[in-house]
Amino acid sequence: MTCRRDWFHMFQELTSGQVLLSNDCEVGVQGISTINIKAYGGSIKTLTNFRYIPELQRNLISTGTLYLSGFEHSGIHGKTRFYKNGKLVLQGTLSGSLYQLDGEKFENFCKHHGIKRHRTCAFTPQQNGVAEHINMTLMENVRCFLVESGLEEQLWAETVSMSAYVTNMSPSSTIDGSILVG
C-alpha cells in the first residue's frame, strides 16, 4: 500500500474498498495496480495488486500478500527476511511497530573492505568525471570505427560493444600496464 500514485503501472481506479490499519483506523482504497521496487541486492521486483491509498504517510507491504505471492518469511530478534526460490530478496529491521526495508549489509560490506561510496544524482553522468570520460572515449571510438569501416549507423550498438571490448583488452596505466585476462 502506498500514497505514491506515480509508482503505479496500468492503474485501475476503485470506488470501494477499505483497509484497517494497526491503529484501528479505516482508510479508503482508491486504486490497484502493480509497482516495481528495488529489492535486496539491487534487483527490481514487481509487486502485484498493490493498493493506492492517498491517506497513508508510509509505504506498507503486507506480509500476508507476499506469502500468497510465493515468498517465504523468517524473522527473529527484530529482523525480518523474505525469500523467493531460496534467495533472499527483501530484508528489514524493526523500527517501532513497523519493519523498515534496509540495505545495511551492503553499506557494512563497503566499509569493511575500505570502499568509499560516492553518490550522485540519478541520470547525471556529468557528476562522475571518470564515467563521463569513458563514455566520451567509447563514442569517439564508435564514430571512428563506423567512418573507417563504411558501416551504417544501424550497427552502432554492436560497434559500442566492440569498442568497449577493445578498450578493456588494451593495456592500462591504472593496472600497471597489464591487460585484463577474460
Low-confidence blocks of residues: none
Largest β sheet strand count, sense and barrel closure: 4 strands, antiparallel
Spatially, the strands of the biggest sheet line up as 6-7-8-9
Mean pLDDT: 76
The helicity comes to 25-40%
Portion in beta strands: 25-35%
Distance between the termini: 46 Å
Q: What is the gyration radius calculated from CA atoms?
A: 24 Å
Number of strands: 9
Number of helices: 4
3D shape: elongated
- Which structural class fits the helix and strand makeup? alpha+beta
Q: Which H/E pattern describes the elements?
A: EEEEEHEEEEHHH
Q: Would you kindly provide a written description of the structure presented here, covering whatever features stand out?
A:
The chain is α+β, with helices and mostly antiparallel strands and 182 residues long. The chain has two domains: 5-112, no CATH class; 139-182, no CATH class. It has helices at residues 63-68, 104-112, 129-149, 156-168; strands at 9-13, 18-20, 26-28, 31-38, 44-52, 72-76, 79-84, 87-95, 98-101. The strands form three sheets. The protein has a four-stranded antiparallel beta sheet. The protein has a three-stranded antiparallel beta sheet with strand order 1-4-5, with no helix packed on it. The protein has a two-stranded antiparallel ribbon with strand order 2-3. Strand 6 and strand 7 form a beta hairpin. The protein is elongated. The mean pLDDT is 76. Residues 93-182 form the Integrase catalytic domain. One of its GO terms (molecular function) is DNA-directed DNA polymerase activity. Pfam families: Pol_BBD.
